Amino acid sequence: MPLKNILAKKEKPAEKAASKKQSSSAVSKGDSKTKNPSVLAERTLIRPHVTEKAVKSAEHGTYVFDVFANSTKHQVKESVESVFGVKVTGVRMAASRIKNVRRRSGIGKKTIAKKAIVQVKKGDHIEFASL
After folding, report:
1. Each residue of 17-54: pLDDT tens digit?
2. What is the 3-state secondary structure (H, E, C) of the chain?
């Protein structure tokens, strides 16, 4: 390609920055608005993590969920708010490490288990019987 064509196609720095800013804001706004909350929840939440410790913490407004390994805090927050209709005030994540296991066919790896500890607004509660 001749140098003349390259120079003709170059944008001015101010125009380039403005167009870049518009395109990035359109993408970020479009992603959050177009996603269906139930689809996001299906890709984020697996099930409530029901243990003795989790049930005791639920009395104080802290709930524990098993989530997919690639889930983020923001996705978990949006999913819990849309599915259960509560206001989430905080999310903490805990991931277990990959472990080697021996089976009949040889050595394998255990999948990563990830938990989300969700704190809801005081006065709100989640009923798991509806699941």
Report:
1. 555 555 444 444 434 444 676 788 788 999 999 999 99
2. CCHHHHHHHCCCHHHHHHHHHHHHHHHHHHHHHHCCHHHHHHHHEEEECCCHHHHHHHCCCEEEEEECCCCCHHHHHHHHHHHHCCCEEEEEEEECCCCEEEECCEEEECCCCEEEEEEECCCCCCCHHHC
